[in-house]
């Protein structure tokens, strides 16, 4: 890589991070600070808080040195909090619990649930070299279950009001490259058959569909709080 190219890439990455920080600060300034009842989280290892502890997978963070800031591993692929944990705290919410934890049921789910899974991606086959993981389609199915549970707990009108004001986070996409299209060796045949452009086009159309499904399920097309980390 040439020196100039390096500078260009660093510039792009820095810009990306600054742009996200800027969007988040706007979100807090003009957005919802006080009035967010719940936080629902979809994603990969960036925001998994322990779902993979409950499945057979090579993508696990239930051991040292993960979680050293908590004093023990929690299933987060991090020393401590994830970015969504920090945002939840700023909003006065508890950490959204992992969907697969047996205790994530009853009134707990009214404050939000985390569906994220390390090695998961937009496409069903992303991350398959890690064995078990919950990909975005399955995470959305799991959200549909929570949605039913919430409706049965507080009734449909209250539930829709809750979804309208809730924060929805989607943070995934890198496994669709790292553990799918760009997997060393395994993906050579796919790369011969499918151009990068058409792979990206597939990803985008799939993601568009998935986001639309979530929006329809939360029935609040014009009041959604979405941001995208990956
Ligand atoms: C992906 O998996 C989900 C189940 O998790 C299934 O409902 C969906 O049809 C699959 N999508 C494709 C394109 O195979």
UniProtKB/TrEMBL annotation:
Transmembrane segments: 6-28
Taxonomy, superkingdom: Eukaryota
Keywords: Hydrolase, Lipid degradation, Lipid metabolism, Membrane, Secreted, Signal, Transmembrane, Transmembrane helix
Any one GO cellular component localisation term in the record: extracellular region
Subcellular location, record wording: Secreted
Pfam families in the record: Lipase_GDSL
Gene3D superfamilies registered for this protein in UniProt: SGNH hydrolase (3.40.50.1110)
GO BP, one annotated term: lipid catabolic process
Record's keyword annotation contains Signal: yes
Protein family: Belongs to the 'GDSL' lipolytic enzyme family.
Protein name: GDSL esterase/lipase
KW Oxidoreductase (keyword) present: no
Source organism (scientific name): Vigna angularis var. angularis
Phylogenetic lineage: Eukaryota, Viridiplantae, Streptophyta, Embryophyta, Tracheophyta
GO MF annotation terms: hydrolase activity, acting on ester bonds
Name of the gene: Vigan.05G117600
